[in-house]
Amino acid sequence: MPFNDKIAEAERRVERWLTAELARHSAAPERLLAAMRHASLGGGKRFRPFLVIACAGVFGVAPEAARGAAVALELVHGYSLVHDDLPAMDNDALRRGQPTVWKAFDEWTAILAGDALLTLAFEVLADPAAAPDPNVRTALVLALARAAGAAGMVGGQCLDLEAEKLGTPARPTVGHIARLQAMKTGALIACACECGAILGRADKGQRMALERYGKTLGLAFQISDDLLDAQGDAAVVGKAVAKDAAAGKATWVALLGIDGARRKLVETEAEAIAAIAQFGAAAAVLEEAARFLSRREK
Amino acid sequence: MPFNDKIAEAERRVERWLTAELARHSAAPERLLAAMRHASLGGGKRFRPFLVIACAGVFGVAPEAARGAAVALELVHGYSLVHDDLPAMDNDALRRGQPTVWKAFDEWTAILAGDALLTLAFEVLADPAAAPDPNVRTALVLALARAAGAAGMVGGQCLDLEAEKLGTPARPTVGHIARLQAMKTGALIACACECGAILGRADKGQRMALERYGKTLGLAFQISDDLLDAQGDAAVVGKAVAKDAAAGKATWVALLGIDGARRKLVETEAEAIAAIAQFGAAAAVLEEAARFLSRREK
Fold this sequence. Notes:
Two copies of one chain form a homodimer. Chain A starts with a helix and ends in a 5-residue tail after the last helix. The first copy, chain A, contains 14 helices and two strands; from the N terminus they run H-H-H-H-E-E-H-H-H-H-H-H-H-H-H-H. Chain A is an all-alpha fold. The first copy, chain A, has one domain: Farnesyl Diphosphate Synthase (Orthogonal Bundle), CATH 1.10.600. Helix content of chain A is about 70%, strand content about 0%.
């Protein structure tokens, strides 16, 4: 099956799972549920759940058995976009070619919908349906909370906004942007891979290899995002482009130039592939995923 | 020991625990940590952690063994206040006699600090330090996520803001306000009691009794809050008063009048006490807690 079809299959599966998950919560106010659906359904690359499924698959775990973790990762990703888009943060009106949640509803609904999506992610992981063994479930909760929290995704968004709104640090170094992005984007992508390893009852070395793969992949993802922002077509990308440069953000393109960023992307792709060499043919789809990032157009 | 001293002891203990918990996260940006500390330390009645400790104590669980759950409940309570105070929500500048987080920092920092506190709560619960048995930890995570999420606390805040900002429903009934507050305030207070029961390995009947106690106590808490808002002194309460009436909120006082609300508070107190009759002397402190609410001045 071509890689694009594998991604499309994961997209359909995750859409179906998220639809079912959000339909279970009829005790919640309808406005809140509508905002949560707006944030979660009808689009998105579903890259994180794809990685959960693919990494669990390295150990022979079936996609259905990775369902809870895949859904949780996408719920957290969705919440982070809802909050990041708020006027007080990135002030984005367009996402996946649609109005963002605060545009479609209002700010308070968007804040609450994000809060509810984040909380739901942990409800899903703690539910016995996510994994029969409670040790696996607590390991998933712990991995996700660490990756999404103050020392991970939320911390990275804080560093990003400190740079943009407060101008600190005055001259961001490559080291600073690498740390920022490792937290903001890399941590959750690495967590997706780690969750696959946890579900697969990987040994320590295997889990570390998949985490390293995820971290490197996260970096490749961010570099390709920066390249898309600098060169992409808004109609294809589905959101505003050339926004980072306008905001004076310290992107890989700003630091290294287009050619430098492209070279770094190719190097990073090779590193990601090297990290999973030990798994051989079982990790073929992960190798394809790494190669895919340097070719993506949206 | 007089009840006020027991509450004061829990306050000191929880302050110490929260300080230690927030000091562990040095990998997070300092601005974010400062906002999280501002939100969590230096005040608050610590009523939810007090209930976790007290309910666990019914089963002979020592306060130190309830530490993780107590801290998690207070982190979630703290996050909810940070987000509720935002300009897009309740637009409050003062909390516990101090500037709210968005006033002391800014809106984006407050949104992120709330997100990070919520996420940290689940990290704390999933950590083996919260309880050695993974079954207990996942039960705690599940209980907290359900209570704090779309069908619980966040859903209640949504109903509250729908009433205030959108004027729906046009004529709130007693049933509507009871549902709203059961979600917004009651769910987390009931969860605190439930977590105590989980830590104490309560049987189903015991757990349900403590949940019922918590729900009733949550209602009493809200009625007393409404009475304080209607009659309290801002200098004693430590936040703006008479705000609910000004905002046209459907409070118990607005629905039943001062005397009616006082009567309902007394009835509710009796119901809470009846719910824990089966525990006898082991639940004496819970009985005191219920009586305390109808006498509190802040």
